[in-house]
Amino acid sequence: MSTQPLTLAAVNRMDEDAFVASFGDIAEHSPWVAKVAERARPYPDRTAMVAAFVEAVAEAEQEAQLALLREHPDLAGRAAIAGELAPESRNEQTGAGLDRMTADEYDRFSRLNATYRDRYGIPFILAVKGATKDQVLAAFEARLDNPADIEFATALTQVQRIIRFRLEDRVSA
Known about the structure:
2 domains; 63% helix
């Protein structure tokens, strides 16, 4: 992944394989999102590109949406501790301070992650860019009482926000 954002013109010139190679990781381990979003090219602007990715997630079959949600790592979970997060996930969690927790905070996250997964069958997903660990914990606790259908929709909305943030980092306006 380049450190310089791509121009929209460069994105629109890519063939399908190059596009999927460049953006297949935007949605955690789910290159199908990029494959679907690619069909909306050429994009008139970055907003349209983001919309194509968001729509790809929104219009997918429920099984594909569920698989996408399950691909997301737990916040401050085992993958983070083992250093196995995708670079963007690692940067997002680090930015929220999830790499600098006390033992008590880590235990609290572990309990919340386990409770959430048991209750909903998916990891807790929150677009943590710009958030603090206290804000993440507050959102975690607030969402634990949601009905399953509301939480599924909320998790998808959070994935779409993550996608937007990641595309905004990779493609210039």
